[in-house]
Recover the amino acids of this structure.
């Protein structure tokens, strides 16, 4: 029994509707931009499923409804999918461009279908609109197939490229074929092959969406696990990884300066202003530190009011000078807490990992010993691991 276009359309409608339901239910309870993008993609699939259903019911649907309604649903689904993908990738949505493409595509299809009927030009016009949407997707996914890049982006790029190739093949068969069909429902190898492959695209694209969504969530979880929730700087785990990377991966030339900072008498701040006021002071302290650092420097919080700065390519003298600049900046910056002005000071311990040194714990221990010596010497000062007092200070 020969395969009918209407049969394939019915299968496509069922498939798109099932995928829409699965996507919608799969992100229930999810929040944020990524979850919203999958919901929009689910709605687009539902609209696409209705469009396939209209084509499947061709013999019961008036030609005008099939022409105008079916193409409107298809172009609307395409537009929603473009917006959903750009939303998922956190790219500009290009709503005006997407709306203009959908409207121009529908008007062209309507003109060459009802006013000046020409099936080949109508298909070409609609194909150009879909191609513009695919190009918007490709631009959003640009760079997705780079080595080490997300595999889902590469998959979606290939799907978009194959969609354009399928459209080019269909139009080539219509314009250059010996016996081109005069409508989409006409039994022909071209129509059957086109509807078959076009009906498979929602499945592959939805798989790509889900994989990309999973990769984005994994990346967000990876980041959240390495960010201090109060100050937004690196936490202890991220600092350890950064130090190991800088020491062991050969990403820098020369030594690595390590500064350990501690807010002086911070308990009195919490006692006077409460923990909420203390949190605001820590945020101000991070702001002061960041004003001094270079783009390549890393700052992180290792607990309480204690912070670490990693400064690649910095020798002992330069690291000591950096610590002094941070100390002076904090000392001269007035803080407004509950309507009162207060000043904070910090003690800084400095150590340097020489080229070839790989022991992160040892460098941090030297910086910690230098910090202890700075506090013991009266606070609000910078001391290095090479200072004589450090040698006499017990490790903590």
């Amino acid at each position: 029994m020969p395969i009918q276009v209407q049969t394939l359309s019915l299968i496509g409608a069922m498939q798109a509707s099932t995928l829409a339901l699965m996507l919608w239910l799969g992100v229930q309870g999810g929040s944020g931009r990524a979850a919203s993008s999958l919901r929009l993609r689910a709605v687009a699939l539902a609209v696409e499923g209705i469009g396939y259903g209209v084509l499947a019911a061709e013999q019961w649907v008036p030609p005008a409804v099939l022409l105008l309604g079916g193409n409107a649903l298809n172009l609307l689904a395409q537009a929603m999918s473009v917006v959903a993908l750009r939303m998922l990738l956190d790219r500009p949505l290009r709503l005006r461009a997407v709306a203009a493409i959908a409207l121009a595509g529908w008007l062209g299809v309507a003109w060459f279908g009802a006013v000046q009927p020409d099936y080949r030009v109508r298909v070409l016009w609609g194909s150009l609109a879909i191609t513009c949407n695919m190009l918007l997707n490709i631009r959003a996914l640009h760079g997705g197939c780079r080595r080490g890049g997300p595999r889902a982006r590469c998959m979606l790029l290939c799907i978009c490229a194959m969609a354009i190739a399928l459209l080019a093949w269909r139009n080539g068969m219509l314009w250059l074929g010996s016996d081109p069909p005069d409508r989409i429902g006409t039994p022909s190898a071209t129509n059957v092959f086109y509807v078959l492959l076009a009906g498979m695209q929602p499945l592959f694209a939805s798989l790509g969406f889900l994989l990309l969504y999973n990769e984005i969530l994994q990346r967000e979880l990876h980041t959240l696990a390495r960010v201090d929730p109060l100050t937004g700087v690196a936490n202890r785990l991220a600092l350890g990884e950064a130090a190991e990377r800088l020491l062991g991966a050969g990403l820098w030339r020369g030594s690595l300066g390590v500064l350990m900072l501690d807010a002086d008498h911070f308990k009195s701040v919490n006692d006077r202003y409460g923990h909420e006021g203390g949190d605001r002071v820590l945020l101000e302290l991070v702001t002061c530190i960041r004003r001094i650092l270079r783009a390549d420097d890393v700052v992180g919080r290792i607990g309480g009011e204690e912070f670490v700065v990693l400064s690649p390519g910095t020798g002992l003298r330069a690291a000591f000078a950096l610590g002094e600049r941070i100390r002076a900046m904090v000392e001269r910056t007035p803080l407004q807490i509950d309507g009162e002005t207060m000043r904070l000071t910090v003690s800084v311990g400095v150590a340097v990992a020489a080229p070839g040194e790989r022991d992160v714990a040892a460098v941090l221990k030297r910086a910690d010993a230098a910090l202890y010596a700075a506090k013991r010497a009266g606070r609000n000062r910078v001391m290095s691991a090479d200072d004589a007092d450090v040698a006499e200070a017990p490790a903590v």
Notes: The chain has two domains: 5-224, 236-392. The first strand starts at residue 256 and ends at 263. The longest helix spans residues 189-224.
